[in-house]
Amino acid sequence: MTALALHVGPPPELRGLLPDELVGWVARAGAPAYRAEQIFRWLHGHGVESLEAMTNVPTALRDALEREHRTRPLALDTVQTAADGTRKLRFRTGDGHAIESVLIPDEDAERDKLTLCISSQVGCALDCGFCATATLGFTRHLLAGEIVEQVYRATALAGRRPTNLVFMGMGEPLHNFDNVARALTLLEHPWGATFSPRRITVSTSGLVSGIEKLGALSPAPNLAISLNATTDEVRDRIMPVNKRWPIAALLKAAGQFPLSHGRRVTFEYVLLAGVNDSDADADRLPRLLRGIPAKVNLIPWNGFEGPAYARPSAERIRTFQERVRATGMAVYIRTPRGDDIDAACGQLAARDLVTLRPWQPTTI
User: Fold this and answer.
1) Distance from C-alpha of 310 to C-alpha of 291, rounded to nearest angstrom
2) CATH class of the 74-363 domain in this structure
3) CATH number of the structural domain 12-68
4) Helix axis angle, 279-288 relative to 314-325, nearest 10°?
5) Residue 305 is a catalytic residue
6) Candidate list 100, 146, 149, 172, residue with the active-site label
C-alpha cells in the first residue's frame, strides 16, 4: 500500500525539479551524474520547449523523463502589443486556465532595460478592491515550473533575456510561497538562467508571515509592498488583508527585512481619487516609513470596468509627489505602461475576450 501511495496524483513537473532532485532522479535512472547538469541547463539555461531539443542527452533518458514527468505546463495563447511597446502574453496552463505576463521595455532606449512581470497564481484570493485580478477569485497556485516557464517563453518571444523580473502579475506571491521560493532557486542557479537576486523583485499586498520567510532566503530578492493607504481605516476598506496584518505590523516586518548595501524596500502606492490622495495622506506617508530604507512608487489607478474608483488628476498626483519629496523621501510617479491593452499594474485578469487576436509568431 505504501509503495502504491507514492504514485498517487499527477507526475512531478520536470521544469520544477531542483538540481539536487534532478541529480537524485538521474542516479535512480542509472545514468552518469553529469546528465543532471546537462538536463538542467537545457531546461533553465536554454529554456527548451521540448525534450527532443536536448541533443546531447541519450534518447532512452529523454524517454524516461517524458514518462515520469510533466514536461509542458504552459502554452502561449495570445500576444498583444501596446502603443508604448509593452507586450502582454496570455498563457494556458496544462489544465486549461489562463494567466498573463507582461514584457515592459524601458522608455529610455539607452538604458536597454527590459522588465518581465510574471504571475504566481491563477486569480487571487486577497480581494483588493482596485485590482482586476481580484475580480476573478482564486483558482489555484502556479507550480514552480509554470512560474519559471513564463520567463523562458517571454525570453524566446523578445529575442533577449529580461534584465529585471518582478513578481507583480496575477496573484499574491507570498500566498504561494513554497512555489515562488522554488522558482527563485531555479532562476538564480548557476547551471541555469543565473538571474541575480538584485534583479528580482517580489511584491506583496502585506502578508507579514510571508515577508519574514522571504527575508530568511539566502540571498533574498528585492521586496516591494503594496501599501496604498496611510490609515488602517482606509486600508481595511480597500485591502482586506489589512484586517489580519495592519499597517503597524506590516511596517515592522518591512523594517526587519534584510537589505544589503544600497538596497531599499519599495512601497507601491496606488492613488485613488478622494480615497487615499489627500494632502494629509501625503504628509503621513513619509512619517510612516521613517527609519526604513525605502522608496515610494506612486501609481495612478489603472481603471477597469466595475469598481467605483477614479484616477486623480495629473495636478493632484504631482502635488502628492511634491509633498512627499519635500521630506527628503525618494518618490516616483510610475507612468502607466500598456494600459491600452489592459496590461498596466492592477489590470491583469486573463479573461477570454473576443477582441484578443491570436498569436502569430511571424508578426512579432
Assistant:
1) 32
2) alpha beta
3) 1.10.150.530
4) 40
5) no
6) 100
